[in-house]
Write a structure and sequence with these properties.
5 strands
Length: 201
């Protein structure tokens, strides 16, 4: 049984890679979505987040005010690190629980998508790390198209390891500097590798 981490700098296309892998039949767990879910549903975690960021970190419907939270944590490295110390351990526990559940259900390869795999230490619990690497100018262009002039973009970039650092720790490196057709080819090769692992286990 294999847990495969997929990461990359913001705007690299890691979510697209994971979407393509999901279409190939691999279950995908998103650490970022789990973090959001836990911060909204776990009462103890909610209290800690609200204490750190203020009660307006949550909207009246109980959902995270993601834009406001992003502006606060990416505007202060100290606040960001304090939030990470609150959230990351809970996310790791939940990932471990869900991985065990998927493996028990018969899945042999599970994908874990996370922007901060190395930064949060999640790489220690995963069997292999795939890093998606993209030129900075392409990443910025994709982010402008996706998010517009988001003031937190450079703060988000600064909060992550550099693409060079991530690439140096990768077991498999996917370069995503072309179009979707090129990326599909790379993912098809990755799928072949992961399918071989599944057959071997």
């Amino acid at each position: 049984m294999y847990s495969i981490g997929v990461t990359g700098a913001i705007g690299s296309g890691k979510s697209t890679v994971c979407r393509l892998l999901r279409k190939k039949g691999f279950p995908v767990l998103s650490a970022d979505e789990i973090a959001k879910e836990l911060q909204e549903r776990d009462a103890k975690l909610r209290r800690k987040v609200a204490h750190l960021l203020g009660s307006d970190a949550y909207a009246s419907n109980g959902r995270l005010n993601r834009r406001l939270v992003a502006s606060r944590i990416f505007g202060s490295a100290t606040v960001r690190k304090r939030l990470e110390r609150i959230v990351h351990p809970a996310v790791r526990r939940e990932l471990e629980r869900r991985l065990k559940k998927l493996f028990a259900a018969g899945h042999r390869v599970v994908i874990v998508e996370a922007a901060l795999i190395f930064e949060s230490g999640l790489d220690e619990m995963l069997d292999m790390i795939v890093v998606v690497e993209t030129r900075r100018d392409l990443r910025l262009a994709r982010l402008r198209k996706r998010d517009g002039a988001d003031a937190t973009v450079h703060g988000r970039m600064a909060a992550q390891w550099s693409p060079r650092e991530k690439a140096a720790r990768a077991d498999i490196l996917i370069r995503n500097n072309g179009g979707l057709i090129d990326l599909r080819r790379n993912v098809a090769l990755l799928t072949s590798i992961l399918s071989a692992f599944a057959r071997r286990s």
